[in-house]
Structure formats: structure tokens, C-alpha cells
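Same chain as my last thread, 439 residues:
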Amino acid sequence: MKALTGFFDRMIQRYLPDAFLFAVILTFVVFVAGILFTDSGPVQMVDHWGSGFWDLLAFAMQMSLVVITGYILASAPVIRRALGRLSTLAKTPVQAIMLVTFVALVACLINYGFGLVVGALFAIHVAKRVPSVDYRLLIASAYSGMLVWHGGFSASIPLLLATPGHFLEDTIGTIPVTETLFSPFNIFIVLFLVVTLPFFNRYLMKGSDPLGNTDASLWKEEEEEIHTGVQPSTPAERLENSQTVSLLIGIMGLAYIFYHFAMNGFDLNINIVNFIFLFLGILFHRTPKRFLDTVMKGVKNAAGIIVQFPFYAGIMGMMVASGLSQQISEWFLSFSTEFTYPLFAFLSAGLVNFFVPSGGGQWAVQGPIMIPAAMEIGVSTAKTAMAVAWGDAWTNMIQPFWALPVLAIAGLKVRDIMGFCVMILFYSFIPITLALLFL
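reply #2:
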């Protein structure tokens, strides 16, 4: 284990570029592949790239708000104190790794944006309690929670299929979450990873580098604002420091949240999750000034998403318009049987996820191909959709896009954690494939 983990760590430290350069390199790879394997020429590929570059602005805004509102909520004094108290459960490096992994997994099952932020912030709390822990492995453990997001309550593909009006409704109708998120095979994968991944990450300590330890003094907890008793002197300052303003708008937000669930049932879509995080953040920070100060700090964590998402939209534009994504999916389909189809749907989704690192965006690309094929072969459409969902989640471990907010909070580079993430990728392959093939 030490030799294998060390090998991947050395290779990635040496050869993996920054996440932005990774997106640029993927752009070139898809550009050349489109010329070689499709009917598109250089001019057409450039057109596909530029035409798709801004197609995901709305989704990019949603994803940015996931990170920002998650940071706002996780940074609220009451949440910070709760994380601090929870971190006292870790007394040794082994306990630190296992505790951070478990908390990140549970948080990402609730919502992936919240889980990413809470996992990173909690890891910093734990690092201060246990300074001898390998900090790089600790942050990789926090990021490993992202592995289960598409099997949890913020999973974009199953939630989309359960929503009337989705783009495949004429083909398959709506699929309730009882057949996707709460299916036996999905529950098996989630429980298997939640129970065993903390132990596997603990096992990775055998291959960790002592130089990966961090000095806890580098991660000073942000102190809550100390008020000296000086009263605001102008009407504007009084409004900025008014708890009443935050309370009133917060109550209005909560009223809409209750109304939404009363009218729509358990409809936990991206917009309502962001809405909940935003207004709980307003209430927990108590005054507009404290809230806005936290917003300014949280925005920097979304910088990588804001800059890189258009590049991935351009990649997606080339993949779709040139037919590359269809060729990849159809190649896997060409040797699939009723038994192996879910596995190859999973693997094809894992490959496409490198170029389209968005669950919803990837489903828009693969759904119209995978679902008709599943119906023709005789495979459950619900299981096919979840196979694509797990493929998307699986290769997130080595696709640096979603690690950006975690790394921004932790102060690390993508190459610092990716060696461990490769090992997590290999391990998680086992329960996912067993479930897709035999359950």
C-alpha cells in the first residue's frame, strides 16, 4: 500500500498541472479528437467550442452559489462552534482521518455543496486539534465525501427524473426516487462506502508522507467579531448592524421554504437548497454587516468555478456538436449485454465526466443515448440513470474541478491530494460494480 500510494503521489506531484491548465489541456484533447474521429474540421470544432462556451452560465451561477452559500452557513458562529466541539472527538491521527471522512460523507449525502465546504472547514478544525496528522491526506479524506453525492439528497440526475417536465419525460415518464435513490442497489453502495471508506482512508496512512503534516498554528480559527460597545453613528450604519433587518428578511425566507415544501413535497432541488443555505446564513450571522463580510470571504472559494466552468461548457459544446460524446457512449454500448449494460453505462459516464464535470450537464449529453439503448436491451431505466450518476460521482475523485472549493479553503494545490484520491477511486470501484451487476 505504501509503495502504490507513494507511486501515484509522486507521479501526480510531478505531472499533474493546475486545475485550470487541466481544463485547457482537455480542451485541446477534445479539439484534436473531434478532428480525428468525427466529420468536424478545425473551423467547425472552434465554432462548436465558442458556441458552447457560455451555455452553462445559469448552472455555473447555481454551482457558485452552492459553494458561497455553503461557506456562509458553515462559517456562521453557531456552526463553527459545533464543528469545533465535534473536532474534539479526534485525539490521534487515525481518529482524525476517520472522523473527517465520516463527517464529509454524511454532509455530502445531505448536499454536495454543503458537504464540500463543511468537510474542508471541519478538516482544518481537526488539524488544529491533531497537528501530527498528514494534512494532505486529511483534506483528501474531506474531499472523498464527494464520492457519494450522486447517491444522496442533492443528486441531480434522479431528482431531475422525478420532476415533471424533464426532457426525457415523453420517453420514460417520471421516475420516483424510490426507484433510484432509495433502490436496494443505491442504498447498498451508499452504506458500504459510509461504513468502510473511513477505514480505507485510515489504511492510506501507511502510504502517507510525514512531510505532509501541517503546523496547526498556520490555521488560526477566525475569531468572531468583537464589539467594543461603540454604537453606529449614522442611519446607514444602524441598518448595517441591525439584527431586526436580518430577522425580518430571514423569516420571510423561512416562510417561503415552508410554503415550497408544503406545495411541492420533498422537492430538494439546487435552487431551494441554495435558498435554504442563504437565508439560514442571514439568520445565523445575525446582522447584515457580518453576513456581507462572510460573503466577501466566501466568494474567493468560487473563483475557480467561475473561471473554469465556461471552458468545460466549451468542451461540452465540442463533445456534443461533433458527436464525440455519442461515439463514446455507443462504443460502450456496442459490446454490452443485459447483464453488463449497467457496468458499461457507469464506465462510459466516468469517462465522459472528465470532459463534462456536471451531473446535470452530463445527463443532458448521455441521457438521450443511454435510455433508449437500455429500453432496447431490456435494462431498467432507473438503474441506467443511477449507473450514469455513479459514473459521474466516481471519477470526481480524479477530476480536479470539484476539488477547487475544498483546496481553496484548505490552502492546497490539486496535486497535493490527488495521489490519495486515485487510491480511493480504485477502492470505490468494487462496491459500485458489485451493486450495478448483482443487485
